[in-house]
Design a protein that fits this description.
Elements (H helix, E strand, L loop, with lengths): L1 E6 L3 H12 L5 E6 L6 H14 L6 E3 L13 H4 L21 H11 L3 E5 L4 H9 L9 E5 L14 H4 L2 H8 L5 E4 L1 H4 L3 E2 L1 H8 L3 H21 L4 E2 L3 H8 L4 E6 L1 E3 L10 E3 L11 E7 L1 H14 L4
Parallel strand pairs: 1-2, 1-4, 2-3, 4-5, 5-6, 6-12
Antiparallel strand pairs: 7-8, 9-12, 10-11
Helix pairs in contact: 1-2, 1-11, 4-5, 5-7, 9-10
This protein binds beta-D-ribofuranose and calcium ion (CA).
Organism: Pseudothermotoga lettingae (strain ATCC BAA-301 / DSM 14385 / NBRC 107922 / TMO)
GO biological process, one term: purine nucleoside catabolic process
Pfam family, one: IU_nuc_hydro
Length: 307
Protein backbone atom coordinates (compact mmCIF):
# COMPACT_ATOMS: atom_id res chain seq x y z
CA UNK A 1 0.00 0.00 0.00
CA UNK A 2 1.05 3.63 -0.59
CA UNK A 3 -0.49 6.22 1.65
CA UNK A 4 -0.88 9.98 1.44
CA UNK A 5 -2.04 11.83 4.54
CA UNK A 6 -3.81 15.13 3.95
CA UNK A 7 -4.14 17.00 7.24
CA UNK A 8 -4.51 20.28 9.14
CA UNK A 9 -2.53 19.74 12.36
CA UNK A 10 -4.25 20.08 14.75
CA UNK A 11 -3.70 18.09 17.96
CA UNK A 12 -5.46 14.93 16.82
CA UNK A 13 -4.00 15.24 13.29
CA UNK A 14 -0.56 15.17 14.93
CA UNK A 15 -1.33 11.76 16.40
CA UNK A 16 -2.71 10.46 13.10
CA UNK A 17 0.55 11.61 11.50
CA UNK A 18 2.72 9.93 14.12
CA UNK A 19 0.88 6.60 14.03
CA UNK A 20 0.97 6.55 10.24
CA UNK A 21 4.65 7.50 10.24
CA UNK A 22 5.48 4.78 12.76
CA UNK A 23 3.56 2.07 10.86
CA UNK A 24 5.92 1.20 8.01
CA UNK A 25 3.41 -1.34 6.63
CA UNK A 26 1.14 1.56 5.60
CA UNK A 27 3.72 2.95 3.19
CA UNK A 28 3.20 6.62 3.98
CA UNK A 29 4.88 8.45 1.09
CA UNK A 30 4.11 12.07 1.86
CA UNK A 31 2.09 14.47 3.95
CA UNK A 32 -0.04 17.21 2.46
CA UNK A 33 -1.52 20.13 4.34
CA UNK A 34 -4.66 22.17 4.09
CA UNK A 35 -6.17 25.15 5.91
CA UNK A 36 -8.54 24.05 8.66
CA UNK A 37 -7.77 24.02 12.34
CA UNK A 38 -5.54 27.00 11.55
CA UNK A 39 -4.24 28.89 8.52
CA UNK A 40 -2.20 26.97 5.96
CA UNK A 41 1.18 28.39 7.02
CA UNK A 42 0.48 27.16 10.56
CA UNK A 43 -0.79 23.69 9.61
CA UNK A 44 2.19 23.29 7.24
CA UNK A 45 4.61 24.31 9.97
CA UNK A 46 2.91 22.08 12.57
CA UNK A 47 3.10 18.99 10.35
CA UNK A 48 6.83 19.52 9.87
CA UNK A 49 7.46 20.23 13.56
CA UNK A 50 5.78 16.99 14.59
CA UNK A 51 7.71 14.93 12.02
CA UNK A 52 10.98 16.65 13.01
CA UNK A 53 10.37 15.91 16.67
CA UNK A 54 10.48 12.16 16.02
CA UNK A 55 12.90 12.27 13.06
CA UNK A 56 10.35 10.85 10.65
CA UNK A 57 11.76 11.32 7.19
CA UNK A 58 8.82 12.36 5.02
CA UNK A 59 8.21 15.29 2.68
CA UNK A 60 5.46 17.83 3.44
CA UNK A 61 3.57 19.56 0.62
CA UNK A 62 1.33 22.58 1.20
CA UNK A 63 -2.04 22.72 -0.53
CA UNK A 64 -4.79 25.25 -0.82
CA UNK A 65 -4.89 28.13 1.66
CA UNK A 66 -8.66 28.61 1.63
CA UNK A 67 -11.87 26.67 0.97
CA UNK A 68 -13.15 26.30 -2.60
CA UNK A 69 -15.99 28.80 -2.31
CA UNK A 70 -16.87 29.72 1.24
CA UNK A 71 -14.98 32.00 3.64
CA UNK A 72 -12.24 30.39 5.68
CA UNK A 73 -13.11 29.06 9.15
CA UNK A 74 -10.47 28.00 11.66
CA UNK A 75 -10.78 26.49 15.14
CA UNK A 76 -8.71 28.54 17.65
CA UNK A 77 -11.10 27.67 20.49
CA UNK A 78 -10.16 23.98 20.13
CA UNK A 79 -6.57 24.04 18.83
CA UNK A 80 -5.32 27.52 19.81
CA UNK A 81 -4.34 30.25 17.36
CA UNK A 82 -1.30 28.32 16.05
CA UNK A 83 -3.38 25.18 15.52
CA UNK A 84 -1.13 23.23 17.88
CA UNK A 85 -0.99 25.06 21.17
CA UNK A 86 -0.20 23.73 24.63
CA UNK A 87 3.38 22.48 24.32
CA UNK A 88 6.87 23.85 23.95
CA UNK A 89 7.48 22.75 20.39
CA UNK A 90 11.01 22.92 18.97
CA UNK A 91 11.61 25.14 15.94
CA UNK A 92 10.92 23.24 12.77
CA UNK A 93 13.85 22.18 10.61
CA UNK A 94 12.71 20.69 7.33
CA UNK A 95 11.62 22.98 4.48
CA UNK A 96 8.26 22.72 2.81
CA UNK A 97 8.43 20.98 -0.60
CA UNK A 98 8.18 23.16 -3.71
CA UNK A 99 5.54 20.96 -5.35
CA UNK A 100 1.93 21.78 -4.53
CA UNK A 101 0.00 19.21 -2.46
CA UNK A 102 -2.52 18.43 -5.19
CA UNK A 103 0.24 17.98 -7.74
CA UNK A 104 2.05 15.61 -5.38
CA UNK A 105 -1.15 13.59 -4.91
CA UNK A 106 -1.64 13.33 -8.68
CA UNK A 107 1.98 12.32 -9.34
CA UNK A 108 1.83 9.66 -6.62
CA UNK A 109 -1.42 8.18 -7.93
CA UNK A 110 0.04 8.15 -11.44
CA UNK A 111 3.13 6.32 -10.18
CA UNK A 112 1.52 3.62 -7.99
CA UNK A 113 -1.55 1.43 -8.42
CA UNK A 114 -2.32 1.04 -4.71
CA UNK A 115 -2.67 4.53 -3.26
CA UNK A 116 -4.97 5.22 -0.33
CA UNK A 117 -5.69 8.79 0.61
CA UNK A 118 -6.35 9.62 4.25
CA UNK A 119 -7.92 13.01 4.91
CA UNK A 120 -8.12 14.45 8.41
CA UNK A 121 -8.93 18.08 7.59
CA UNK A 122 -11.35 19.95 5.33
CA UNK A 123 -11.58 18.24 1.93
CA UNK A 124 -10.39 21.19 -0.18
CA UNK A 125 -7.20 19.54 -1.53
CA UNK A 126 -8.98 16.25 -2.20
CA UNK A 127 -11.77 18.00 -4.10
CA UNK A 128 -9.18 19.87 -6.18
CA UNK A 129 -7.50 16.58 -7.02
CA UNK A 130 -10.85 15.25 -8.24
CA UNK A 131 -11.60 18.40 -10.26
CA UNK A 132 -8.14 18.78 -11.78
CA UNK A 133 -7.24 15.12 -12.37
CA UNK A 134 -10.53 13.30 -13.03
CA UNK A 135 -8.77 10.63 -15.13
CA UNK A 136 -6.59 9.61 -12.18
CA UNK A 137 -8.93 9.32 -9.25
CA UNK A 138 -10.39 5.97 -10.25
CA UNK A 139 -6.94 4.51 -9.67
CA UNK A 140 -7.29 5.33 -5.97
CA UNK A 141 -7.91 2.43 -3.56
CA UNK A 142 -10.04 4.58 -1.30
CA UNK A 143 -10.34 7.85 0.55
CA UNK A 144 -10.50 7.33 4.30
CA UNK A 145 -11.74 10.54 5.86
CA UNK A 146 -12.54 11.88 9.27
CA UNK A 147 -15.60 14.02 8.82
CA UNK A 148 -19.28 14.42 9.47
CA UNK A 149 -21.64 12.89 11.93
CA UNK A 150 -24.65 10.61 11.79
CA UNK A 151 -26.58 12.02 14.71
CA UNK A 152 -24.75 15.18 15.81
CA UNK A 153 -22.30 17.89 14.82
CA UNK A 154 -19.66 19.87 16.67
CA UNK A 155 -19.74 23.26 14.92
CA UNK A 156 -23.50 23.45 14.51
CA UNK A 157 -26.04 21.00 15.96
CA UNK A 158 -25.74 18.91 12.78
CA UNK A 159 -22.39 19.82 11.17
CA UNK A 160 -18.92 18.56 11.93
CA UNK A 161 -15.89 20.88 11.52
CA UNK A 162 -14.08 19.24 8.56
CA UNK A 163 -17.23 19.14 6.45
CA UNK A 164 -18.55 22.53 7.61
CA UNK A 165 -15.19 24.17 6.82
CA UNK A 166 -15.61 23.30 3.13
CA UNK A 167 -18.94 21.65 2.41
CA UNK A 168 -18.68 22.30 -1.34
CA UNK A 169 -15.43 20.33 -1.39
CA UNK A 170 -16.97 17.54 0.68
CA UNK A 171 -19.86 17.30 -1.79
CA UNK A 172 -17.43 16.84 -4.68
CA UNK A 173 -15.60 14.10 -2.77
CA UNK A 174 -18.74 12.19 -1.77
CA UNK A 175 -20.08 12.37 -5.33
CA UNK A 176 -16.76 11.35 -6.95
CA UNK A 177 -17.39 7.61 -7.15
CA UNK A 178 -14.12 6.87 -5.33
CA UNK A 179 -14.68 4.33 -2.50
CA UNK A 180 -15.02 6.34 0.71
CA UNK A 181 -14.59 5.28 4.30
CA UNK A 182 -16.23 7.88 6.54
CA UNK A 183 -15.22 8.24 10.17
CA UNK A 184 -18.04 10.22 11.80
CA UNK A 185 -18.16 11.91 15.20
CA UNK A 186 -20.43 9.10 16.42
CA UNK A 187 -17.40 6.80 16.08
CA UNK A 188 -14.64 9.14 17.28
CA UNK A 189 -16.56 9.88 20.49
CA UNK A 190 -16.09 6.20 21.39
CA UNK A 191 -12.33 6.70 21.75
CA UNK A 192 -12.07 9.37 24.40
CA UNK A 193 -8.62 10.12 25.81
CA UNK A 194 -8.62 10.38 29.59
CA UNK A 195 -5.91 11.31 32.11
CA UNK A 196 -4.93 7.63 32.17
CA UNK A 197 -3.82 7.63 28.51
CA UNK A 198 -2.24 11.07 28.85
CA UNK A 199 -0.15 9.85 31.78
CA UNK A 200 0.81 6.70 29.90
CA UNK A 201 2.06 8.74 26.95
CA UNK A 202 4.05 11.00 29.26
CA UNK A 203 5.79 8.02 30.82
CA UNK A 204 7.21 6.91 27.44
CA UNK A 205 10.06 9.42 27.53
CA UNK A 206 11.08 13.03 27.14
CA UNK A 207 9.75 13.73 23.65
CA UNK A 208 6.47 12.16 24.66
CA UNK A 209 6.01 14.82 27.36
CA UNK A 210 5.38 17.23 24.49
CA UNK A 211 2.66 14.92 23.17
CA UNK A 212 1.05 14.64 26.56
CA UNK A 213 1.13 18.45 26.97
CA UNK A 214 -0.65 18.73 23.64
CA UNK A 215 -3.34 16.34 24.83
CA UNK A 216 -3.74 18.23 28.13
CA UNK A 217 -4.43 21.43 26.13
CA UNK A 218 -6.80 19.62 23.75
CA UNK A 219 -8.67 18.02 26.62
CA UNK A 220 -9.10 21.29 28.49
CA UNK A 221 -10.40 22.94 25.29
CA UNK A 222 -13.05 20.22 25.03
CA UNK A 223 -14.01 20.80 28.65
CA UNK A 224 -14.36 24.55 28.02
CA UNK A 225 -16.19 24.36 24.70
CA UNK A 226 -18.32 21.22 25.07
CA UNK A 227 -18.27 20.64 28.82
CA UNK A 228 -17.11 17.04 28.38
CA UNK A 229 -14.46 15.16 30.33
CA UNK A 230 -11.82 13.69 28.03
CA UNK A 231 -11.21 14.37 24.36
CA UNK A 232 -12.09 12.24 21.32
CA UNK A 233 -9.16 11.01 19.27
CA UNK A 234 -10.91 11.92 16.00
CA UNK A 235 -8.24 11.85 13.30
CA UNK A 236 -6.19 8.80 14.38
CA UNK A 237 -9.32 6.66 13.83
CA UNK A 238 -8.65 6.86 10.07
CA UNK A 239 -5.16 5.40 10.34
CA UNK A 240 -6.24 2.91 13.00
CA UNK A 241 -8.92 1.64 10.60
CA UNK A 242 -6.27 0.96 7.96
CA UNK A 243 -4.11 -0.83 10.51
CA UNK A 244 -6.86 -2.92 12.13
CA UNK A 245 -10.17 -2.84 10.26
CA UNK A 246 -11.36 -5.85 12.28
CA UNK A 247 -11.81 -3.81 15.47
CA UNK A 248 -14.38 -1.58 13.74
CA UNK A 249 -17.99 -2.22 12.76
CA UNK A 250 -19.20 -0.47 9.66
CA UNK A 251 -21.97 -0.37 7.09
CA UNK A 252 -22.39 1.08 3.62
CA UNK A 253 -24.78 4.00 3.22
CA UNK A 254 -25.61 6.77 0.83
CA UNK A 255 -24.29 10.03 2.25
CA UNK A 256 -25.24 13.44 0.85
CA UNK A 257 -23.62 16.73 1.81
CA UNK A 258 -25.86 19.69 2.56
CA UNK A 259 -24.52 22.92 1.03
CA UNK A 260 -27.64 25.09 0.98
CA UNK A 261 -29.52 24.70 4.25
CA UNK A 262 -29.86 27.77 6.44
CA UNK A 263 -29.56 25.62 9.58
CA UNK A 264 -27.88 22.58 8.09
CA UNK A 265 -24.92 23.78 5.96
CA UNK A 266 -22.21 21.13 6.18
CA UNK A 267 -24.43 18.31 7.41
CA UNK A 268 -23.62 14.76 6.29
CA UNK A 269 -27.05 13.34 5.54
CA UNK A 270 -26.63 9.60 6.13
CA UNK A 271 -29.48 7.59 4.62
CA UNK A 272 -29.73 4.92 7.34
CA UNK A 273 -32.95 3.38 5.94
CA UNK A 274 -32.16 3.99 2.27
CA UNK A 275 -35.26 6.15 1.93
CA UNK A 276 -33.68 7.82 -1.12
CA UNK A 277 -33.11 4.52 -2.90
CA UNK A 278 -29.68 5.86 -3.89
CA UNK A 279 -26.70 3.54 -4.16
CA UNK A 280 -24.33 3.56 -1.19
CA UNK A 281 -21.29 5.82 -1.68
CA UNK A 282 -19.54 5.43 1.66
CA UNK A 283 -18.62 2.82 4.23
CA UNK A 284 -19.48 4.49 7.52
CA UNK A 285 -17.70 3.38 10.69
CA UNK A 286 -20.22 2.75 13.45
CA UNK A 287 -18.40 1.29 16.43
CA UNK A 288 -14.95 0.33 17.66
CA UNK A 289 -13.55 -1.85 20.42
CA UNK A 290 -12.05 0.82 22.69
CA UNK A 291 -9.69 -1.42 24.60
CA UNK A 292 -8.16 -2.94 21.45
CA UNK A 293 -7.96 0.51 19.91
CA UNK A 294 -5.77 1.82 22.70
CA UNK A 295 -3.68 -1.34 22.79
CA UNK A 296 -2.76 -0.93 19.14
CA UNK A 297 -2.46 2.84 19.51
CA UNK A 298 0.16 2.41 22.24
CA UNK A 299 2.02 -0.32 20.35
CA UNK A 300 2.40 2.09 17.45
CA UNK A 301 3.19 5.21 19.50
CA UNK A 302 5.89 3.25 21.37
CA UNK A 303 7.61 2.46 18.06
CA UNK A 304 8.41 6.16 17.76
CA UNK A 305 11.11 5.75 20.38
CA UNK A 306 13.18 3.96 17.80
CA UNK A 307 12.14 5.89 14.70
C1 LIG B 1 -12.11 17.40 13.34
O1 LIG B 1 -11.97 18.82 13.40
C2 LIG B 1 -10.71 19.17 13.92
O2 LIG B 1 -10.86 19.97 15.06
C3 LIG B 1 -10.00 17.88 14.27
O3 LIG B 1 -8.63 17.96 13.89
C4 LIG B 1 -10.73 16.82 13.50
O4 LIG B 1 -10.16 16.62 12.23
C5 LIG B 1 -13.11 16.96 14.38
O5 LIG B 1 -14.35 17.54 14.12
CA1 LIG C 1 -8.01 17.51 11.62
Amino acid sequence: MHLILDCDPGHDDAFALLIAGASKELGLTGVTTVAGNSYLHNTSRNARTILDLFDIDLPVFAGREKPLLRNIVIAPDIHGQSGLEGANLPAMKRPIEKTNAVQFMAETIEKYDDVTLVATGPLTNVALLILMHPHLIHKLNSIVLMGGGISFGNVTPVSEFNIFADAEAAKIVFESGVPIVMVPLDLTHQVIVTDEEIFRIRSLGQKFEILSDLLIFFKSAYKKVFGIEGVPLHDPCTVMYLLSPEIFESKEYHVDIETKGELTYGQTVVDLWNTSGKKANARVLLSVKRERFFQIFFEKISLLKGV
